[in-house]
Amino acid sequence: MQDDIAIKVEGLSKRFRIGERDEDSDSLAATIISAIKSPFTNYRKYRSLYNFDDVDRSAADSTESSSDLIWALRDISFEVPRGQVLGVIGSNGAGKSTLLKVLSSITPPTHGRVTIRGRVSSLLEVGTGFHQELTGRENVYLNGTIMGMTKKEVDAKFDEIIDFSGVEKFLDTPVKRYSSGMRVRLAFAVAAHLEPEVLIVDEVLAVGDAAFQRKSLDKMEDVSQHGRTVLFVSHNMPAITRLCSRAILLKEGGLVMDGDATDVVSAYLDGGHGMSGAYEWPDASTAPGDDVVRLRSIRIKDARGNTSTSIDIREPVGLEMEYEVLEGGRLLLPHFVAWNDAGMKLFIAMETDPAWLKRRRPTGRYVTTAWVPGNLLNEGMIYISAQMKTVEPAQRHFKAHQQIAFHVVDTMEGDSARGNWVGGIDSAFRPKLDWQTEVVSEAVRKASAAGP
């Protein structure tokens, strides 16, 4: 293993045996016999959960599984350099949590090999590594001891851990009386502050409130900047693109994509959510609309005019609809409605092209595009509905509700509205405004003139 590689995974596979329901006995005698045999039957079932001697080892290369076997992971290989933040994404059941449990030595792999260089700290479930009967203070020292740290080393970090977690009032209360949010705050504070070489974090941060999530993401950024490695599992795609330079996509236990975080997130959103940046209705008879007008296509365009589902936060994004007017002489109003992934309606954009203001449209095919400026929308998923109505008399002709979507990506580089802020921004919009600051104090003016 090279010195600059923190984690190396080779041909990793993990198999589980799932339980099957026993058949009910159909007579009193069969019930009695089943009860007598049950201790031996239950022992065989328990042993079979961890023993796969009855299974062909070559089955790992097969996509077929028996009725009581599942492959949570299948032949996964990748490397993580020191200091890199690697995002792990995928739908529920894709194998993300199982991968982290294998990397954390909680469960052994069925096949393959994992090599990790350095001390590992993991946060996989609420209260991971805590003894419920011990107090918060005692659990901090317990976790430090488990990680191989001395009491003196934990003492040096203790105040910082407690301040970060915000549970100082309950520090000497048994952890079993903590809320789930309190437990995860203390657990993350311990995991992140005891200077691990490798930090592994599952979706558990979602339990915390918004302020703590932002603080935790900032802490993981700080950890990575000090040369430590982070593996981060999350369904929060803006957090993945902001925090991670690279991501891997898991699907049904296999690794299907490994690359730049924004590209991997876009592929996941396209395939996993069933959403895309374009939609067409080749058959006019089935297209949204009526005898007046029919919608034929809608799409998301990047600044270069290409169809895209991943838009840099600094660049404009085009919303395009193509429609066919079947009955001329109407005062039509094409418009778009945008929603974020929290279900908030962001804006309604009516067509304002001067060429068609108060002008009735003849029959024909039209393509209209609305451009949303860069540095306006916040990062995250944006869903677009395309609609058409007649103004006079008022009549709706079609409504393609959230038919296409795009992901606003913030790479935190270049001309961004962030300023000096690197944390999360909790708002629907994030405009880059024209700021001006003047020096009005002579003391400040002299200090500025003197230079650093």
Strand order of the largest sheet: 5-6-7-3-8-9
pLDDT < 50 runs, ≥5 residues: 57-65
Determine the number of helices (DSSP H or I, runs of at least 4 residues).
9
| Mean residue pLDDT | 81
What proportion strand?
A: 25-35%
- What shape does the CA trace take? globular
Structural class label:
alpha/beta
Summarize the biggest pleated sheet.
6 strands, mixed
- The share of residues in helices is 25-40%
Number of separate strands: 18
Q: Element order, helices and strands?
A: EHEEHEEHHHEHEHEEHEEEEEEEEEH
Compute the separation of the termini in Å.
44 Å
Measured on Cα atoms, how large is the radius of gyration? 28 Å
Labels describing this entry:
452 residues; alpha/beta; 5-stranded mixed sheet; 9 helices
Task: Compile the SSE list and pairings.
Layout: E1 5-17, H1 28-48, E2 69-81, E3 85-89, H2 96-103, E4 111-116, E5 120-123, H3 136-146, H4 151-165, H5 180-193, E6 198-201, H6 210-225, E7 229-233, H7 237-243, E8 246-251, E9 254-260, H8 261-272, E10 278-280, E11 293-301, E12 310-312, E13 317-325, E14 332-340, E15 345-350, E16 364-372, E17 380-390, E18 395-409, H9 442-450
Helix pairs in contact: 3-4, 3-5, 4-5, 5-6
